[in-house]
Amino acid sequence: DIVMTQSPDSLAVSLGERATIHCKSSQGVVSSNNKNYLAWYQQKPGQPPKLLIYWASTRASGVPDRFEGSGSGADFTLTISSLQSDDVAIYYCQQYYETPRTFGGGTRLELE
Amino acid sequence: QVQLVQSGAEVKKPGASVNISCKASGYTFGSYVIHWVRQAPGQRPEWLAYINAGNGYTRYSRKFQGRVTSARDTSATTVYMDLSGLISEDTAVYYCTREALGAYDLWGQGTMVTVSS
């Protein structure tokens, strides 16, 4: 199974500042057509995860453009360019390159 | 509107089975694959199974092979998941979620399953 490792486990950022979350897969999740099978989700307490980014860098419908996904191969990053209070949540990366689909351990994002 | 609505919370004894339903509405049911993902308290989500709502093809996690099954009722636009041989470690929120372009773009509200003697 592909193991997804996120860092840091938790992060405190001030309003309006940048937040950066990293995700590394135990093997590459990029296909021969150069698509990275990597998604990012946001989860708030008592709610299911919400899709933010797919194909490593494509924002899902309705996701603000302050959320940016980048990276390729086995190393990926989610950047929130200007933190808003509504962004306080746990963020997960997930690979869908192969089954079983696996998630990272999550990064808890808090306000400083 | 486009949504997945799951059945309500369950409390089960060890060794029992649980059946969770997931009713889809607002989109073409047979055009998507539905996955089952669970999340124990404070843990990362964990994939259990998927079912192609169009042709009924299923695939299960090796970890849960033999304990998990999924089925669908196209006339009711509903997907079901059965998990048998419950143990305390199966206590979790169980989600159905729709796959679109590989990622999960639509989620049910979750079903809390508590396994306790």
What does this structure look like?
The complex is a heterodimer of chains A (112) and B (117). Chain A has 112 residues and is mainly beta. Chain A is built from no helices and 11 strands. In chain A, strands 2, 4, 5, 6, 9, 10 and 11 form a 7-stranded mixed beta sheet that branches. A 4-stranded antiparallel beta sheet of chain A has the order 1-3-8-7, with no helix packed on it. In chain A, a hairpin with a 6-residue loop joins strand 4 (38-43) and strand 5 (50-54). The mean pLDDT of chain A is 97. With 117 residues, chain B is mainly β. Helix content of chain B is 0%, strand content 54%. Chain B contains no helices and 11 strands. In chain B, strands 2, 4, 5, 6, 9, 10 and 11 form a 7-stranded mixed beta sheet that branches. The termini of chain B are far apart.
Keywords:
heterodimer; A: 112 residues; mainly beta; seven-stranded mixed β-sheet; four-stranded antiparallel β-sheet; globular; B: 117 residues; 0% helix
Per-chain topology:
The complex is a heterodimer of chains A (112) and B (117).
Chain A: E1 4-7, E2 10-13, E3 19-25, E4 38-43, E5 50-54, E6 58-59, E7 67-72, E8 75-80, E9 89-95, E10 102-103, E11 107-111
Parallel strand pairs in A: 2-11
Antiparallel strand pairs in A: 1-3, 3-8, 4-5, 4-9, 5-6, 7-8, 9-10, 9-11
Chain B: E1 3-6, E2 10-12, E3 18-25, E4 33-39, E5 46-52, E6 58-60, E7 68-73, E8 78-83, E9 92-100, E10 103-107, E11 111-115
